[in-house]
Amino acid sequence: MSSDHTQSVERPVRSAGRPVGSAEPLVGSAEAPFLELLARGASADAYEQPVLIARAEGRPAERIAALEEAKAVALRVRSELEGRRRREAELSALFETAHDLAGLRDLDAVLRAIVQRARSLLGTDVAYLSLNDPARGDTYMRVTEGSVAARFQQLRLGMGEGLGGLVAQTARPYVTDDYFKDDRFQHTLTIDSGVRDEGLVAILGVPLTLGDHVIGVLFAADRRARVFEREQIALLGSFAALAAAAIDTANLLTETRSALTELERANEIIQDRSGVIERASDVHDRLAELVLRGGGVHDVAAAVSEVLDGTVEFAETAPAEALEASRAEGHAVRHGDDWIAAVAAGGELLGALVLRGHPGLDPVDQRTLERAAMVTSLLLLARRSAAEAEQRVRGELLDDLLDARDRDPRLLRERAARLDADLDATHVVLAARLDGPAADADQEAAARRRLWSAASHLAATRHGLAAARDGGTVLLLPLAAGDTATELARRTAAHLGTAVHEAVTVGASAPVRDLAVRPDAVAACYEEGRRCLDALRLLGRSGDGAAAEDFGFLGLLLAGDRDIAGFVDRTIGQVVDYDDRRGTDLLRTLDAYFACGMSPARTKDELHVHVNTVAQRLERVGRLLGEDWQSPARALEIQLALRLHRLSAPTRP
Question: Of the candidates 213, 210, 212, 208, which has an alpha carbon nearest to the alpha carbon of residue 236?
């Protein structure tokens, strides 16, 4: 480790906003009012009050600075808490709606709950749901929430008219931030009058589909211009899927009741059908319980296996033709002796539930398999949301370390501990970048997202951190005992390349410790890793991994930003430190030794010392630099470092 590094470790850590040795614990007392505001959920404006009061009272500048810093941290914590509460509310609403669906008794009540929850979570003025009427060939309002105009609530729309008609025709979500200025859909006097009475401006509509048929549209609307985010569109799509499932389930129950009426004529058939329905009810109860207690997809498969008296498995891949047919139709399809139910959400295929060796499947059991697939999709979406949230938190911590914004070691350690990372351990900073050619900007962006996702997964499993930066990805990974930065870089390049199916080049820094007290070291190591990455690419070693120590002085020639001080420190830094601490002349002896053709006899004449003194000094150099310091490659690097050290030293008068 260099002397600069040693000094940075020994430098006293200053608490934000106060000098070392200050009698008043400024930071600790500054945090108190903001902690109280956080505890009682105060508005963002309230966080200005402690600073304003301190200024009004004429408090010292350092006190006010400490309050300003504490306020910024508290506002970030408040924002994070609000984001987590929002995500928890969304997942809770989806789970509650799934529970309502599993215990469906009143279709209208379920649809009202869906519309109410959609309006609440999206924060819109109005939410409403329309259903198609095949008998009259139009569509009508079924449920509204927040509406105040009677004409709007009683609207009946011809097929293909208005934004809802566009959604129904294309079976895709559509959004407009200004309804009356949007000419993508057909405007009619009836519809525009109703919308104008309601005062709506921004409208989002998503389709309610059963198989490939659109049965209605779920809307969220505001009385002011608004841009709906991608997450909000996906959330409304999830509610629409649940609404469609509720309608389908209600239809199924209606069909079941009709069948039971017919089966009353024959006792044997009644008993048979009763057993099937009991199994369906049992699996619905089990699935609802699994969702509520946080079960996984394999728990769902196990529960359905028991109810259907067969083997049900979740698979990420299945026969393509059967899987596509199941997704298009919205039903489980038979494939040989198996049944396949697609697990999909918002048009994205997530996998399939496969019932093995059960060619004869009762229709109700078929629907049970389909319901299990829907519950599985909800669980997968919930797990993905949680994983993405953790990835974002890991990336934010690494961004803070790279930018050196938060220098409080205690806070850094606490944030890392929550992510199961240890900043006091030895780490390596790795810069990773894709080297495969991209056909266009969209494909390149998609490839970068895959790289970030793979790097985030690797960091989570290795107790490290990952973030997207400079068109690539940066990772902070712990270095195991006996491992080297070079080996870690090569393994990381191979792992990421396999994950994204493209060549990934990885440059690594030298190992570094104590990141909690030296967060600025992460940025320096990242630059070192990037220089190593550039050297690999210039050498044509795309898809490989290496560390800065692998290149020696060649890294100075190949890197765009030549780190002369870093090269000198890595090569002869220990000798420089030894001379500085002990007042010895090892550097001068090395210079003379190489100038005299590595001859101890001529060196002692040059230095005017005894030959034994030269031998003792060279023996000390060997212990500091390693036994191979006189090998041709090492000797060349050492001579170059000596010359660079002389050139970089200040000129003496």
Answer: 208
Instruction: Reply yes or no on whether the pLDDT at 316 is more than 90.
Output: no
Highest mean pLDDT among 54-63, 157-166, 614-623: 614-623
| Cα–Cα dist 5/7, whole Å | 5
Q: Which residues make Cβ contacts (< 8 Å) with residue 620, sequence separation at least 6?
A: 578, 584, 586
How far lies 549's CA from each of 74, 538, 566, 631, 637, in Å? 42, 17, 11, 16, 12
Element (H, E) at 145: strand 138-145
Q: Is the pTM of this model over 0.90?
A: no
Cα separation of 281 and 303, whole Å?
12
Structure tokens at 327: 């997704």
The one-letter amino acid at 309: D
Judge contact between 161 and 132, C-beta under 8 A.
no
Residue 24: the pLDDT is 42
| Whether pLDDT at 81 is above 80 | no
Q: Rounded CA gap, 143 and 136, in Å?
A: 19
Distance CA 80, CA 195 (A): 37
Q: How far is CA 631 from CA 598, 628, 639, in A?
A: 11, 5, 12
* Dist CA 465 CA 470 (whole Å): 16
Radius of gyration of the chain (CA): 34
Instruction: Answer for the pair 131, 111: CB distance below 8 angstroms, yes or no.
Output: no
pLDDT at 542: 84
At residue 368, what is the residue type?
Answer: T
Burial (0-12, 13-18, 19+ Cβ within 10 Å), 583:
exposed
DSSP 58-83: T--HHHHHHHHHHHHHHHHHHHHHHH
Look-up of token digits 């034994």: 612
Residue 285, CB-side half-sphere exposure with 13 Å CA sphere = 7
The strand ranges marked E within 381-464 are 427-434
Query: Residues of 312-322 as b/e, b for ≥16 C-beta within 10 angstroms?
Result: bbbeeebeeeb
> HSE of 29 in the Cβ direction (CA atoms, 13 Å)?
12
pLDDT tens-digit readout, 139-175: 899 999 999 999 999 988 887 788 888 888 888 999 9
Beta strands in 490-559, from DSSP E residues, in sequence order: 504-508, 545-547
